[in-house]
Design brief:
Blueprint lengths: L10 E5 L4 H11 L5 E5 L6 H14 L5 E5 L13 H13 L4 E5 H6 L13 E8 L20 E7 L3 H13 L3 E6 L4 H6 L8 E4 L11 H7 L10 E7 L7 H11 L4 E7 L3 H11 L1 E6 L13 E2 L1 H6 L4 E4 L5 E4 L2 H9 L9 E5 L3 H12 L3 E5 L3 H11 L2 E2 L10 E6 L21 E6 L8 H8 L3 E3 L2 H16 L5 H18 L3
Parallel strand pairs: 1-2, 1-8, 2-3, 3-4, 4-5, 5-6, 6-7, 9-10, 9-11, 12-14, 15-16, 15-18, 16-17, 18-19, 19-20
Antiparallel strand pairs: 11-13, 13-14
Helix pairs in contact: 1-2, 2-3, 8-15, 8-16, 11-12, 11-15
Length: about 500
Amino acid sequence: MNLFGTGVGRICAVAAAPTAVEMRKQVRAALKRTRTVEVRLDWLRTDRERSRFIRFLKLSQPRNATFIATCRRREGGGRFAGDIQRELYWLIEAREAGCQWCDLEVETLRALPDQSIREYPVPPRVLLSVHDFARTPALPRNVNPPVHGGIDAVKIAAQARTLNDSVRLLHLARRSRNFVAVPMGDVGLPARILALREGSALAYAPVAEATAPGQVSLEELSHLYRAHLLTRRTRIYGVIGDPIGHSLSPLLHNTGFAARHVDAVYLPFLVRQLGDFLSAIPEFGVRGFSVTLPHKRAILKHLKECEPLAAEIGAVNTVVVRSNGSLYGCNTDYVGVLCALQKKLAIKGSRVLIFGAGGSARAAAFALARAGAVVGICARREKAARELARTVGGDVVPRRALRTEFFDAILNATPVGMYPHDGISPLASNELRCRIVMDLIYRPQRTQLLKIAAQKGITAVSGVEMFLAQGIAQWEIWLEKRAPEAAMRRAVLGALRAEEKSRPR
């Protein structure tokens, strides 16, 4: 039996703020999503604020909610500047306020007489936590609460440098009881989402500001990823790339799964080395994945089979993991480019410049050349530009020529201007001599390049249309059924609009 309850109660919301007023707001927001809340007393900036918040808990603690009090000292990775006795004082106060659990770091336990918390009237149940913010250390076969010391559950939070690190922590969760596994860092994020599925007693998610590296917000963990509903039968999909934090693919695909009531989840995998991800595929149970920068070409040599068009393009953005573990690759970027551009341009006979020569540029070049466009390639890597131009029967266009030559359309296929570095443009105003500018970047929806184009009276085409088209095609390849296009489109456009509104003017 899980000591923290079942269902969404296994998601522990983290309330952490500098003032009691803000902490109260976070607790109330947390209880709309879950019944388990960690209150980070160490984040409150003064003892006066801690006292105010404790009074709130005494007077307002709702029924059927579980509160975990934490007052982590700086030595244990927290913000509390006091000593062990002051830490214990606030944990005792938390018990008086009705907190049923406290989180006690191992550094504190080791300093207590007989390494036991039994003599102190802290909350009746104790979660012993071990943090390693630098790495994932060597782990035992299993971890169970010690028979002495007054410990009810154990938590290990460790920085995952590789996906294999996070897999090791998930294995430990599977073999242990009353254990909380917390893979930290951006690389550990997928395992953090899957921790409950693997047997972790809790999964942590901040209500507001993240309190540990690689955390997923409470809204995302409970609503987008539905972590409390995932089981060993849940199908796992994802996107691999570096960087990956900007991707709205999880929103797109998970919205589709929810709309069609499919027991599946789509996760973001930060992958620096392809081999790290490929070896983790069976461990995570991945059934298919999207491929983005910088792996679209490198993935080819790891495929058992590849659709002829993707092989000809020389770039893959979609992979199916077959039942025998072999990989089948295809390319839906091709479809995305045509869907987005043909609404604005009669492609046959038009002159189109592609800026860039990577995986997305290759898909765009093949799509447009096959549709009858005259394709020009301009790229920083001259050798790659020549090779791509030769492959599609196009021309290499030197950068200096952009100030004098005219094109029907210019496509940016580089990552320059992508969130969070969205204040820059890959091309200058005097290099945009064309009727249409399309940016394959979709976040932000209006990139700096598109803003410059609009100021010149040039038609601007956002990469969001390509993103939606290629993503919906991926969804249908994996699921072999019609995608709920309207719901997926609403979710992505809604997120982009909300992001645009929140940006400082």
